[in-house]
Design a protein that fits this description.
By secondary structure, the chain is an alpha+beta fold. It folds into two domains: 1-146, no CATH class; 155-209. The protein has helices at 14-21, 52-61, 91-97, 123-133, 155-166, 178-185, 189-209; strands spanning 2-10, 26-34, 38-46, 65-73, 77-85, 101-102, 106-109, 112-119, 136-145.
Length: 211
Amino acid sequence: MHKLSFKLRHRGCSETKFSMDFPDCHITVIDIQSDNKQKQYFYYISGKSDKFELIVSYLKKSKAYKMVKEIERSEDVLLLLVIIDQGSNYVQNVIQKYNGFFIDLHTISGGYEYWHVGVINRSHISKMIDRLEKMGDLEVLHIGEVDFSHVLLSKQQKKVFLHSYKQGYYETPRKTTISKIAKELGLNSATVGEHLMKAENKVIRHSIKTL
């Protein structure tokens, strides 16, 4: 398999604009749920607490955000639940179109989105880059091979992980569920969930070493 890492100053993107307006904040985005119209995220925002009220107010006033709910805050971390209107100009749509999958959470800092993507077919990387270049200021950070299965994953983890990928489990929105995967492989759901969690953690840890 192959890995593509890049940063993008995403033209017309509300998240990029948010980051440009609050350049001292670092945002980790956790995708919770997506459909054809909306995306639901957790924003894990690290920065100075004296900016947190301004951030919440800023996002609530933005037309792009349909819901902004504060979950918790500490001295240097703000956790928000947000809902954004889905559109055709999403990076996730490009990654999904070329059968890519996320191997790390995407982050936003200094007006750039940072993405780390796994791709099975290397020829898809250039196509992905062509599409991304039309979306804003793109800088490719890394292209290389990543052997997700050799040594990293056990035989059973590899089997479950690759089957889940092929069935669309890592697409946005997901095209299958852990229950369906378990039935197809003749395993129980708890076992499949455990194999996926261990495989995902190994893939992420291995990928971070190559950054």
